[in-house]
Each structure stands twice: as C-alpha cells, then as structure tokens.
Design goal:
By secondary structure, the chain is mainly alpha-helical. The chain has one domain: 434 Repressor (Amino-terminal Domain), CATH 1.10.260. Helix content is 45%, strand content 5%. The chain has seven helices and two strands. Strand 1 and strand 2 form a beta hairpin. The chain is elongated. 9% of the residues are buried. It holds the Pfam family HTH_3.
Amino acid sequence: MKDRIKQIMEAQHMTQQTFANFIGMSPASLSSIFNDRTKPTINTVEAIKSKMPAISTDWLMFGRGTMFVDEVEGNDAVQKENNGGYGSEPALDFMDAPVAHTTYGQDNRAQNARRVADTAMNINLGQAERPVRKITEIRVFFDDQTYESFVPKK
C-alpha cells in the first residue's frame, strides 16, 4: 500500500511533506509508513479518499484495478466506489452504532467505532494471522499514581 501512496504523490507532483499536509496527516506519520515503522491504517485511506474521491479504494488498499475510478462511468462509478461497490445500497455507518459499556459520551463512541472499523480493516488486509494470545495480566492505573494488577486464574 505504501508504494501505491507513493504513486499517488508522484501523479500529483507532490513531495512527501506537501502530500501529508494536503491529506491532513502529519509528515512524520507518513514518513513512518514509508520507512516501514508503521503500516497504513483505515485513517490513512479515509484521509486520502476525502481529498481525492476519484482514487479507487480497491486499488489503494489491495492493488486491484486502476488507480482512478473508471471515468467512463462518470458519477455512478464514484457513487459505486463510495458505497463499497454495491450500487445504490448505502455503506454501513459505524459512527452512530451503540457502544456497550460506554459512559464517556459521543467522543468515546466515535473512537470505539473507529477501532471497530480499524479492526475490520486489519482482518481484511490479512493481518489476522497472528497466533492466539492469552491475557496474562491487566493493570488499572489511577490518577493518584497507583495501580492494581489483576492476573487470571489458571
């Protein structure tokens, strides 16, 4: 995906810093992607798509198809692309989804929805091939600089 992001930058004749500022991302974050310190996230894809809706999401994320949505189909292609390729059927909107056990209000609900979307994206990108992990300890930190540790029973 980082190579496709570079192709977009080159097609737009932008430097790394200019492109990062254009999509609303910090230049350091974009640099981390290009230097293999981090992987692009759904936030990166959304930032690019919000500024460049003609970019094909399928191409950007998976390398399938062409860089730009087929211009022959015009606005219908952009609408289809924005709806995940399902024609006039609307895409799921996680921003209004109820979040269980949340008492922090709207901002936390949006963050949790973003985490759900990021998790789904990681699964789609084949990053779910991690070994099964087990919880060994949970620590809860308090504002008085103390913490409690919880260890599951074996």
